[in-house]
Amino acid sequence: MARPKESADQQLNAASIPPELQRKLAMLTFLGVIVAALVGALGSIAAAYITIIPRLPLQENIYFAHLSATAHPFANTNVTLEKDDDVQIIVQGDDAYWNCGKGDTSPEGILGDKTQNTVVPSANHCELVGYIGEGVPFRVGAYEEFKATESGSLYLGANDEPTSSLSERRILISV
């Protein structure tokens, strides 16, 4: 007696599939899952690139300035800032001391010694101070981090009288 043909809609019985074909189907299914995972990962990377990467800050510009008493009261660092730049100023060196005529002191100046004849009377005598463009001088000390309030060249100097004997210091400026 002849066997009736199975319709295309009928499912195959696992026992009726030869073992070699079962292994190939399992391998193709596994590879399909791997490809789907890789496509999903690439989609996640693309989404991160589109949404996160553009919001990351650009690489900082690092500058080094050398400050000495020969350019009293301020020396142009040759660093031009734009308004709203994030700025970091760091006096470098373990021996970051200078002499403003009252003995060696750090870039923080002589604590509590406020002298009216200096550039920034509210700052410590010999403290590192600066200004941007034609702006108002501000305190820096050994480390200062701020947002630029105006555009222009950055100037740094010691808060001292014009007779200063400030030694040269290396200063890192990060914008």
Describe this structure in words.
The chain has one helix at residues 19-51; strands at 62-67, 75-81, 86-91, 98-99, 104-105, 128-132, 138-139, 143-147, 152-158, 169-174. It is an alpha+beta fold and 175 residues long. It folds into two domains: 14-55; 62-174, Sandwich (Jelly Rolls), CATH 2.60.120.430. The chain has a four-stranded antiparallel sheet with strand order 1-10-3-8, with no helix packed on it. The N and C termini lie far apart (90 Å). The model has no long low-confidence stretch (mean pLDDT 77).
- Rg, rounded, reads 35 Å
> Uncertain regions: pLDDT < 50 for 5+ in a row?
none
CA-to-CA gap between the ends? 90 Å
Assign the CATH topology of the largest domain: Jelly Rolls
CATH architectural category of the largest domain: Sandwich
List how many beta strands DSSP finds: 10
Largest sheet: 4 strands, antiparallel
- Average pLDDT value? 77
**Judging from the principal axes of the Cα atoms, what is the shape?**
rod-shaped
Strand order of the largest sheet: 1-10-3-8
Tally of domains? 2
Number of continuous helical runs:
1
Described by its quaternary structure, the protein is single chain
Strand content: 25-35%
The CATH superfamily label of the largest domain reads: Galactose-binding lectin
Query: Secondary-structure element order, as H and E?
Result: HEEEEEEEEEE
